[in-house]
Write a structure and sequence with these properties.
The chain is built from five helices and twelve strands. With 269 residues, it is an alpha+beta fold. Helix 1 (10-16) runs parallel beside helix 4 and helix 3 (89-106) crosses helix 4. Strand 9 and strand 10 form a beta hairpin. The strands form two sheets. It has a seven-stranded mixed beta sheet with strand order 1-2-3-7-6-5-4, with helices on both faces. The structure holds biotin. Biotin binds next to helix 2, strand 3, strand 6 and strand 7.
Length: 269
């Protein structure tokens, strides 16, 4: 096996990833690619789409996700979950807990989850999760969901783009290192480990088996934040994570509200 290029090795990916997989050198977005496969009737079991780089990586709330070759993991899992549409959040939150557990298992770092879908290390975002579900109105249930996970593993050689450089970081501060354990070998292993951890939760996803693993890694508990919606920005204190993964916050007036992730983002103050 050669690790001289920054690309991931098919052979190693197959060794670590316990599901059917398509490995692409470059794609616009692994989520978009996975969605385009969703209607094909021969695909009925979970399928992983993994790319070395993306030129149109997407994040929540219409944001883009920086996805340079050789620096990260960009993957989507096409899933056929037996859950109600309101429970789609369980997939995102299970992936967040799984990503933290996998990083903890392979490094000595302690990643934290910024509700609802971001992973932080040292106060900066190193990973994001985007789940996109499709509802079948005839059957009255979710026909499929695409779980996308993007992780900055190494620092990009030219640094992060201007607009994200103050908030983005990578698991390892160095740029892609040749011939060490921290090269593509690490990315292949980490991708496999995340999927392993996620699939354990996924087996019983409607029972929220990941709730306590998620809650204990939360970055924002007891913190002062700004609650940002498309039309407002309000100060609040984070009180607790509720059973449905909504976030209980308290406003300066004393009023409490359970936030659903949809259109809300939080800024740490
Ligand atoms: C976020 O930061 O809001 C979520 C980022 C999700 C990025 C991943 S990378 C793999 C998959 N393909 C995409 O286009 N997005 C997700």
């Amino acid at each position: 096996m050669s690790y001289n290029s920054t690309g991931l090795s098919d052979e190693a990916l197959k060794k670590y990833i316990p599901l059917d997989m398509i490995h692409l050198t470059e794609v616009d977005s692994t989520n978009t690619y996975a969605k385009s496969l969703a209607g094909k009737k021969e695909i009925t079991t979970p399928l992983v789409i993994l790319a070395d780089s993306q030129h149109g990586g997407r994040g929540r709330l219409g944001r883009s996700f920086f996805s340079e070759d050789g620096t990260g993991i960009y993957m989507s899992i096409l899933l056929f979950p037996e859950i109600s549409p309101s429970d789609i959040q369980h997939i995102t939150t299970a992936a967040a807990a799984a990503t933290c557990r996998a990083i903890e298992a392979l490094t000595d770092l302690s990643p934290k989850i910024k509700w609802v879908n971001d992973i932080y290390i040292g106060g900066k975002k190193i990973a994001g999760i985007l789940t996109e579900g499709s509802f079948d109105p005839v059957q009255g249930k979710i026909s499929h969901a695409v779980l996308g996970i993007g992780i900055n593993v190494f620092s990009p050689a030219r640094g992060f783009p201007e607009d994200i450089k103050s908030i983005a970081a990578s698991i390892f501060p160095e740029t892609y290192p040749e011939h060490t354990d921290h090269n593509s070998f690490f990315r292949e292993k980490l991708a496999g480990r995340i999927i392993d951890e996620f699939m354990v939760y996924y087996k019983s996803i409607s029972q929220k088996p990941h709730f306590s693993d998620y809650k204990k890694r939360m970055l924002l508990t007891s913190q002062e934040v700004s609650v940002i919606t498309p039309i407002s920005c309000t100060d609040a204190k984070v009180i607790d994570l509720l059973d449905d993964f909504s976030l209980l916050v308290e406003y300066p007036s004393g009023k409490r509200e359970a936030l659903l992730s949809g259109e809300v983002s939080l800024k740490i103050k």
